[in-house]
Amino acid sequence: MTEFRGAYTALVTPMKESGEVDYEGFRSLVKFQITQGIDGIVPLGTTGENPTLDEDEEDEIIEIAVKEAAGKIKVIVGAGSNDTKHMVKYVQRAKNMGADAALVVTPYYNKPNDDGMLRHFEAAANAGIPIMVYNIASRTGRNIPAPLMEKIARNTGIAGVKESSGDINQMGDIIREVAIPRRNSKDKFYVISGDDSFTLPLISMGGDGVISVISNLLPAKVKALTEAALNGRFEDARAIHYELLPFIKAAFIETNPVPIKQALSWAGLPGGPARLPLGKMSPANEAVLKKAMVDLGIIK
């Protein structure tokens, strides 16, 4: 099983003002991530606006990501759906196009029971590529508590979880009950934060890293924080955490990825507008975001 530790970027999908995908902008973002030392990228996740992309657009994005990564960094492709049949198709596509893993979100809207949840992720794991479970009840309406995660993780095709529950106790339970028992086996289970603000506390409890939003703009800083924490240099990690915290808060002042795309655009990187139904930021929130960027020295 491939190792999944460190700092990963949940990549935005840059758009032109016309609403078309900016493929060359996306390519430049991938190159930027590589030169800044990130461990991996995650295209076609929530931050990549996958619900509003068509399959041709997704294919092009995966192709660019895999080609530019070229084994230098890992590529985890978003492959979720609330229809198991479609999810398996997307996971197989990620495998066939050369991704290192697929990120599969908890089925949304349907609110599956435990049996359905187990069978959904079993179907994902059987596609033959490492699967990262994406647990984010705030968007899906269904949490995966530690006892259910332990059952899902019995399938060794499940490589880990992107934990976005916001519940630090649950994160600790998953590390203790699922990750630690597999730590010395060849089939490790990785617990990765899905929230920038939880990167440091999660790693301090034995977690493995972050799939970050703010690293779209600040990959080297997020990498430095993660690396310091993973190596036990918590004083250094804590200093970076508090340095970044105002920007982390500002980056989520409205629905992700609207603020981070605006921040990228202000910094001169490809971002552009979000697709409807995501709209523009309010002027008041723009001011908060801009101040956080000025304070960090990103813009003047």
Provide the gyration radius in Å.
18 Å
CATH top level assignment: Alpha Beta
Side-by-side strand order of the widest sheet: 1-2-3-4-5-6-7-8
Mind summarizing the main beta sheet? 8 strands, parallel, barrel
Second rung of CATH, namely the architecture: Alpha-Beta Barrel
Which fold name corresponds to the CATH topology? Answer: TIM Barrel
**Structural class, from secondary structure content?**
alpha/beta
Tell me what portion of residues adopts beta-strand conformation.
5-15%
How many β-strand runs? 8
The DSSP helix count reads: 12
- Low-confidence regions: none
> Helix coverage percent of residues?
40-55%
Distance between the termini: 45 Å
What is the molecular shape?
Answer: globular
**Name given to the CATH homologous superfamily:** Aldolase class I
Write the SSE topology.
Elements: E1 6-10, H1 23-35, E2 40-42, H2 55-69, E3 74-78, H3 84-96, E4 101-105, H4 114-125, E5 131-135, H5 137-140, H6 146-152, E6 158-163, H7 168-179, E7 190-193, H8 199-204, E8 209-212, H9 219-230, H10 234-251, H11 258-266, H12 283-295
Parallel strand pairs: 1-2, 1-8, 2-3, 3-4, 4-5, 5-6, 6-7, 7-8
Helix pairs in contact: 1-2, 6-7, 9-10, 10-12
